[in-house]
Amino acid sequence: DLWIRSWSLLTGIRFRVEGKEHLQPEQAYVIVPNHSNLLDIPLTGSRIHHPWKCLVKQEILNVPAVGWIIHNIAIPVDRSSKRSRQRSLIAMVRELQKGISILIFPEGTRNRTPQPLKSFYSGAFIIAIKAQKPILPVVITGIRKLQPVDTLLLYPGKVTMTYLEPIPTEGLTDKDVKELMTRVYALMEAHLVQHGPAFQHLGTKAN
Predict the structure, then answer these.
(1) How many domains does the chain have?
(2) Strand ranges in 34-171 using DSSP code E only, listed in sequence order
(3) What CATH number has the domain bearing residue 151?
(4) Which strand (E) or helix (H) includes residue 31?
(5) Contact 165, 118 (CB under 8 A)
(6) φ, ψ for residue 167 (rounded to 5)?
(7) CA-derived radius of gyration, the chain
(8) Is 22 helix (H, G, I), strand (E, B) or coil?
(9) pTM score, two decimals?
(10) What is the pLDDT of residues 160-206, one digit of tens each?
(11) Burial letters for 45-79: b for 16+ Cβ neighbours within 10 Å, e otherwise?
(12) What is the span of the domain harbouring residue 96?
């Protein structure tokens, strides 16, 4: 919390969390936020007040400041290596079974498109079903307005992180992965269109 407060004072960016009532302190989740900025990992992680680790691309650990912040809680993966992907999957299921939440960005990489979300990878949903732990969708809004794509400039304003209602996976099998992924995608996309300043025009068009 200290670094968030310090960062807010330096940048003029206010950070708000909504939906905290959906978090159960003793419950391990597969946490799936949208991803449009490198700050998403430390911002999201700073508001999770129980043990957690995150899946990150191996190269993220080499990014100055960000890599240093997250190295103790990172489960690295080389996405080009099948063996690395399998090792990371096993590691994440083990952590979940120990009661440690796992944070995975289902889009894989930052969303630089004009759309609210990129397509999801199935990994987070496979892991949640294998561990029989709930999916916790998290939607971050406002950051794209404050730091547009392809710029390092940060403008003052408000960033909101919203916990949506967890989705249970008890009793689900590998056959349910696609349906679970589609359901979570639809919930997060709808929230972004309704509440994300950069995407509200899409909701207007739809109406």
Answers:
(1) 1
(2) 52-57, 74-77, 101-103, 135-141, 157-163
(3) 3.40.1130.10
(4) strand 30-33
(5) no
(6) -115, 115
(7) 16
(8) helix
(9) 0.83
(10) 899 999 999 999 999 999 999 999 999 999 999 998 666 655 654 43
(11) bbbbeeebbbbbbeebeeeeebeeebeebbbbbee
(12) 2-206
